User: Fold this.
Amino acid sequence: MKKQSLNTVDLFLHESADVMKTLVQRLAAPEHVDRLYESRRSAESYLTNDDPKLRLSAIVVIAHQWALDDALIAACERLLRNDPDPEVRAYAMGYLAYGYYETDDARIGKMAAEIVYENAQPHVLRRAAYAALFNLRQSARNSVPKRNQAIAPGFRFPEDVDWRFVDTFLYGGKRNGIHPKDLNGLLF
Assistant:
């Protein structure tokens, strides 16, 4: 499920309630599914659960059952910064970017771009952060093919990353120095 879940995270906001409930049923034990859908307050209580699958389920349920609102956006940012599970952090990054869809928000863009560059971060999170940058860009509708390519199974991270695009979130598109893609193995 992990490979499929990350590759389809961008599509989830456009899926039907039935599709989303099926995902949650795959992630959460049956006794938790009803509680997740019981009320927003109940779903929010799972954002701090010890089980990463339940935290991930809570993000999905709240975004689709109620709303991707300021409270969920703040929770996603908190999970992105502090959650120990890379997949929860990746989903939080994706939903956080949707919360700032086409805003070119400098703070969120810088945060995502720094994650893309940070080799110590888990691959799943770096890839989610890269895809998120396309959603933040004001011209996101024009970059949907590139975003879809970035989340496609054949995309090679970091080899296929457009580092100049990432740099636009860090340096406004201007960077003094060498791009990692330009090194072509010169370091090792």
